[in-house]
Specification:
By secondary structure, the protein is mainly α. It folds into 2 domains: 48 residues, Arc Repressor Mutant, subunit A (Orthogonal Bundle); 129 residues, Tetracycline Repressor, domain 2 (Orthogonal Bundle). It is 75% helix and 0% strand. It contains 11 helices and no strands. Helix 5 packs antiparallel against helix 8.
């Protein structure tokens, strides 16, 4: 089709995956500030020129990492097995989604905090947020058609502001299990 990017070669796709995995490991072990193109090249075993040609700079690599995580989450709730994927009742899917979204946000915390600091409102205009909002809105509408699903979806997703989750985890020492239990309580009152 006209206007579409050509399919990625198998070796290019493997290299992309190796680079993203290496970058994610560096961030997990040392933090986002430690991420350099040379460090990623060394950790991935791929030439630094290839890393630069593929991603350009560290900021583009960070965006690619965020995008990769978003694509995995979207694939899980759009086509994965129930209860996160299709086939379960709306309330069960919403619960599974909120747990998965909390885990995704916590795993991407450092990257999301940097994006939030750059522009707090940009999140709401981004394609990944729009997809997630639409998904939550549809599940709320299916579970409770009488509710104001568009607004409630924004309010539910507001609980996943990176700075709030960072505060809960770092300052208040809230565990992932406690966070999930609290989300369940919030959801029980809604659906």
């Amino acid at each position: 089709m006209a206007g579409q990017a050509p399919p990625e070669r198998a070796d290019a796709a493997r290299n992309r995956r190796r680079i993203l995995d290496a970058a994610a490991r560096i961030i997990d072990e040392q933090g986002a500030k430690a991420l350099t193109m040379n460090g990623v090249a060394h950790a991935s075993g791929i030439g630094v020129g290839t890393v630069y040609r593929r991603f350009g700079d560290v900021s583009a690599l960070l965006l690619a990492l965020l995008d990769d995580g978003e694509q995995r989450l979207q694939a899980a709730f759009m086509t994965g097995p129930p209860p996160l994927g299709p086939g379960a009742p709306a309330g069960e899917r919403l619960r599974a989604f909120l747990h998965a979204y909390a885990k995704h946000t916590l795993e991407s915390e450092e990257l999301l905090l940097a994006a939030e600091k750059a522009s707090a409102s940009a999140r709401y205009k981004s394609d990944p947020y729009r997809v997630v909002h639409t998904h939550v809105q549809l599940l709320i509408r299916e579970a409770r058609p009488e509710l104001d699903a568009p607004v409630l979806a924004h309010l539910l997703l507001g609980a996943f502001q990176p700075s709030l989750l960072c505060h809960l985890r770092s300052e208040m020492k809230v565990s992932e299990e406690r966070l999930e239990a609290s989300l369940d309580q919030l959801l029980d009152s809604l659906v």
